[in-house]
C-alpha cells in the first residue's frame, strides 16, 4: 500500500536546518569554543542556544532515519546504495577538499598565520594531514559522514526487514510501541543507557568518528528510531494525537532539570541525573515537535518544494560563509548585536545567491552538492500528419 508523504517532516527539516545556521552564527558570539569568536559576547543568546543544542541535531538524525525508510521503498538495494553514495559520499569528499578549507584558512589568519595567497594555503589541504595539525577536515559535514555510516551499517538489517520474517518482526515491534505509549515515550532511556555505558571510555564529543563512539552510538540509535517510528503510519498518527502532551512533558523535564542541576551537580550520581534529564528531554521534545509538524503542517506548496531542495546545499555552504563574514566583521568597532545580524542575514543571503545563480543551474554543481539531476526537458510532441497523409505518401512514391 502506498504511504502518504509526510509533509510535516519536510517543514521540520527546513526549520531544523534554519535553526542550525542561526546556531552556528551564534557560536561566534557566546564565548563557547568555536573556530572564530567575537571578544564581546551576547549572554542572552546562551539561553535559546542551550535549549536548541540538546535536540536540534538529534531531530535531524531522526528525520534522516525516516527519510531512509521512504527512500528504500520501491528500490533495489543496489540502487539505494548508489543513490546514498552519490548524495552523501560525493558531497562529503568534495566539501572536505574545497568548501571546508576556507574555514580553516580564516581561522589560521585570525591566529596570526600568514600565507602568500589563499592558493598557497589550499595546497596544504592535499597533504591530507588531519585538522587541527593540518588542513584536512570535514568540520560541520561530520553530520553527513555519520549519516553515511549509519546508512551502510544498518542496511543489512533494513534489507532483512523487507523480507517476510523481517517484515513480520518489524510489524510486531511497531504494534507493541503503538499499543503501549509509555514504551514509545521511554525510548529516551536507551540513549541514557548508551551514555552511561560508553561515556566513561569516550567522554568527549569530537565528531571525528574514530574517538567519538559514545556520540556515534547515541545519534545512531536516534537515526534508527526515526526509521522505526516515522516509517509506520499508525505510529505517526499516534504522534499527532499526543503532540501537545509530549511537548508539555518535554518542557517540564527541561525546566525541572535546569532548576535542580545546581543542587545535584556535585553529587556522585550527577551524571545519571544529567543523562536521564537530557536524553529523555531530547527524545520527548522530538516526539512533540514532530507530532505538531505532522498535525499542523500536513501540506505542501511551492515555497516548501523550493526550500526542501535548497536546504542541503545551504547546509554544505553555510558555515564557510558564516566564518568568512565573521572574520571581516569581528574587528569592527560595533556592538555584538549588529555584528550577529550582519553575519546571520549575510549567511542566508550569500548562500541563497550562490544556490540560485550557480548550484541549482548546473548539473555538475548539483551533483557535487548532493542534489538530484536537472529534470529532462520535455520532448516536443511530433506534429501529426494531416488526414490525407496516406494518399500523399502514395503520390510521392
From TrEMBL:
Residues 7-355 form the Acyltransferase domain. The chain crosses the membrane at residues 12-34, 54-72, 88-106, 141-161, 182-201, 213-230, 242-261, 281-298, 310-330, 336-355. It comes from Sulfidibacter corallicola. One of its GO terms (molecular function) is acyltransferase activity, transferring groups other than amino-acyl groups. Coiled coil: none annotated. InterPro entries: Acyl_transf_3_dom, Glucan_succinyl_AcylTrfase. Residues 377-387 have a biased composition (Pro residues). Residues 377-397 are annotated as: Disordered. This is Acyltransferase family protein. Keywords: Acyltransferase, Membrane, Transferase, Transmembrane, Transmembrane helix. It holds the Pfam family Acyl_transf_3. The keyword RNA-binding does not apply. PANTHER family: BLR4337 PROTEIN, GLUCANS BIOSYNTHESIS PROTEIN C. The lineage of its organism: Bacteria, Pseudomonadati, Acidobacteriota, Holophagae, Acanthopleuribacterales.
Amino acid at each position: 500500500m502506498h504511504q502518504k508523504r509526510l509533509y510535516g517532516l519536510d517543514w521540520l527539516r527546513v526549520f531544523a536546518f534554519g535553526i542550525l545556521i542561526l546556531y552556528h552564527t551564534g557560536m561566534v558570539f557566546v564565548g563557547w569554543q568555536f573556530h572564530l569568536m567575537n571578544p564581546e559576547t551576547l549572554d542572552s543568546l546562551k539561553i535559546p542556544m542551550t535549549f536548541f543544542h540538546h535536540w536540534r541535531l538529534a531531530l535531524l538524525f531522526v528525520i534522516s532515519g525516516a527519510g531512509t525508510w521512504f527512500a528504500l521503498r520501491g528500490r533495489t538495494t543496489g540502487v539505494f546504495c548508489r543513490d546514498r553514495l552519490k548524495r552523501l559520499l560525493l558531497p562529503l569528499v568534495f566539501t572536505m577538499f574545497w568548501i571546508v578549507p576556507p574555514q580553516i584558512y580564516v581561522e589560521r589568519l585570525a591566529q596570526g598565520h600568514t600565507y602568500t595567497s589563499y592558493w598557497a594555503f589550499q595546497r596544504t589541504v592535499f597533504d591530507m594531514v588531519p585538522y587541527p595539525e593540518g588542513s584536512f577536515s570535514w568540520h560541520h559535514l561530520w553530520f553527513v559522514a555519520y549519516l553515511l555510516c549509519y546508512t551502510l551499517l544498518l542496511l543489512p538489517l533494513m534489507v532483512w526487514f523487507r523480507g517476510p520474517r523481517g517484515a513480520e518482526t518489524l510489524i510486531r515491534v511497531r504494534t507493541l510501541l503503538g499499543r503501549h505509549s509509555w514504551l514509545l515515550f521511554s525510548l529516551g532511556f536507551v540513549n541514557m543507557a548508551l551514555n552511561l555505558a560508553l561515556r566513561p571510555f569516550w567522554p568527549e564529543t569530537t565528531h571525528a568518528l574514530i574517538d567519538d563512539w559514545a556520540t556515534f552510538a547515541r545519534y545512531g540509535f536516534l537515526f534508527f528510531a526515526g526509521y522505526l517510528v516515522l516509517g509506520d503510519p499508525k505510529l505517526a498518527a499516534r504522534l499527532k494525537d499526543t503532540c501537545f502532551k509530549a511537548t508539555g512533558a518535554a518542557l517540564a523535564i527541561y525546566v525541572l532539570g535546569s532548576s535542580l542541576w545546581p543542587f545535584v551537580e556535585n553529587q556522585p550520581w550527577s551524571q545519571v541525573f544529567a543523562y536521564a534529564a537530557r536524553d529523555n528531554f531530547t527524545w520527548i521534545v522530538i516526539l512533540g515537535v514532530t507530532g505538531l509538524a505532522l498535525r499542523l503542517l500536513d501540506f505542501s506548496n511551492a515555497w516548501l518544494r523550493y526550500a526542501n531542495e535548497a536546504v542541503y546545499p545551504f547546509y554544505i555552504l553555510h558555515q564557510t560563509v558564516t566564518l568568512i563574514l565573521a572574520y571581516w566583521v569581528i574587528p569592527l568597532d560595533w556592538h555584538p548585536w549588529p555584528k550577529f545580524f550582519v553575519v546571520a542575514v549575510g549567511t542566508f543571503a550569500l548562500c541563497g545567491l550562490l544556490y540560485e545563480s550557480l548550484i541549482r543551474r548546473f548539473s555538475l554543481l548539483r551533483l557535487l552538492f548532493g542534489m538530484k539531476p536537472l529534470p529532462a526537458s520535455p520532448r516536443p510532441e511530433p506534429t501529426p500528419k494531416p488526414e490525407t497523409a496516406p494518399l500523399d505518401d502514395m503520390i510521392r512514391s
